[in-house]
Amino acid sequence: TNRGTTPLAAGGWAIYLNALQPATPIEVLQGNARFTHLGGDLHRLTPASADAGAIAPGASLRIEYLTQMLVTNIGEAPGTPYLVLS
After folding, report:
1. End-to-end Cα spacing for the chain
2. What is the pTM of this model?
3. Least buried of 33, 48, 54, 56, by fewest C-beta within 10 Å?
4. By the 8 A CB rule, do 10 and 50 touch?
């Protein structure tokens, strides 16, 4: 959810996160986001297209994170996400 007062431009942001259970194949396009494995447990979520990435103030973008591996405890869940604006 964009809690700011200005829109997030499409293609002007990325979310980086650590996840022990990577998506397969290395780069996966899921609906409105592209999930890219960068190396180790570091991954990046970016908008899939210009239409999918713009987020107006107060609007939300829902991205589902799915893995083929069973997450058996909270330590295996994706963590430490951070937003990078460009």
Report:
1. 18
2. 0.75
3. 56
4. yes
Task: Note the Cα 46 to chain centre separation in Å.
Answer: 6
Task: Give the number of residues written for the chain.
Answer: 86
Q: Are 58 and 2 in contact (CB under 8 A)?
A: yes
7 conformational bin, left if phi > 0, alpha if psi -120 to 50, beta if neither: beta
Q: Which amino acid is at 77?
A: A
Please, are residues 53 and 47 in contact by the beta-carbon 8 Å criterion? Answer: yes
Tens digits of pLDDT across the chain (86 residues): 889 999 888 878 898 988 877 665 555 666 678 888 888 888 898 888 767 778 899 998 877 766 776 666 666 667 788 989 87
